[in-house]
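Pipeline run #58 for the internal structure catalog. This entry was flagged by the ingest filter as a single-chain record with no existing model, so it goes straight to prediction. Upstream metadata was stripped on purpose; only the residue string is passed forward. Reviewer on rotation: M.T. Logging verbosity set to normal.
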Amino acid sequence: MSEQMTGAQSVVRSLEAAGVDTVFGIPGGAILPLYDPLMDSSRIRHILVRHEQGAGHAAEGYAQATGRVGVCMATSGPGATNLVTPIADAFLDSVPIVAVTGQVPSAAIGTDAFQEADIRGITMPITKHNYLVTDPSQIPRVIAEAFHIASTGRPGPVLVDISKDALQAATSFEWPASVDLRGYRPVAKPHGKQVREAARLMVESSRPVLYVGGGVLKARAWAELRVLAELTGIPVVTTLMARGAFPDSHPQHLGMPGMHGTMSAVTALQKSDLLISLGARFDDRVTGKLSSFAPDAKVIHADIDPAEISKNRTADVPIVGDCREVITDLIAAIQAEHEAGHQGDYAAWWSQLDKWLTTYPLGYDSPDDGSLAPQYVIERLGKIAGPDALYVAGVGQHQMWAAQFISYEKPGTWLNSGGLGTMGFAVPAAMGAKVGRPDATVWAIDGDGCFQMTNQELATCSVEGIPIKVAIIYS
């Protein structure tokens, strides 16, 4: 049964029906009608940020820390364009957020009205999908679809732009019982034949490496990953976006690959004869020059997004599917290989890997003048705060040191801007993470340049009672 209300009330009811408990935003002319029902009668907490970029990054931090969809809100024109950077950031790092923006009245769209910007056109390349709503009756359906798209398949940002007159108009509210989008059918279950072929290659190879990307964390597949690694005995590397997916202390973990990675992880990839890529995208920061990356390796590439497979490196065994489903099926296929008497022999490989691990550990020089090395500061911070704390980094040298010298034992404890490399990410993202995980200790590890870009959100933290900790690291 439908209820009568304004479009603005319909938006708030829709957000509540989608399970939203927190929105980060700033009011302005076009979005203002939404603020009356949001502030007067909703259980949703609105956190008034100091800049819309802070709202977007806070929504990202909330999403990464909780696994739920983060929500940010802004008005039309400059309010909406200030969300572009965090939306692009969420797109590249596959973070599920929904951005709700106000738009000028529908009759004024296209007239260059005051504070008008075509935010739908602007964000089309950096969103999974986006909407312009001018009919208030469409609001519940659009909001339901936005949350469904953001959180399923490969997660990502969705923008919902709503004209001011649609927010003000009378309408009826009816939350859809289900969401059915033609043409949007993410494939979660992998093809059995491909999985069996992957298992065969894994037991036949002599120098395999499990190349683990952020997709394993997005799929919440860390328990399955550990089972697969221990079942096979194959070494593991975790990318910048996958830190914490596999415990750093585990004897099979070689560390982080890439231009800022450990010698053992980088060399293992280069010398391998089989890469089992799980939720990774062969990013340039990992591969360097593609033509010379792991030249002797065959590639098993599993990813929820078919567009990623063979995009940068041709896959010998392509597997489209959710990483949790893929790894679960791989475990069963490997067990079948073992029962058939086919067991991988990696003794010589591990002998070489152990030499690299022993000979080339991560390290740093201590200053002669008695001052503290920044790596030491970060290392001590990690040991004192411990493996249950959340560490949120900005972008730059301090980010790499935080990825290298803190031991990540648990998933969801490392948050950073990987793909876009957004300076200013740490403080607002840490704020959002703390809101989502209020019982956790949250450290923002920032550089002096990054900190100056978004440090105004410390005022938000103070006013809203969000106790984050900040370490500013000078390189």
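catalog note: The longest strand covers residues 97-103.
catalog note: The two ends are 61 Å apart (CA to CA).
status: ready for reviewer M.T.
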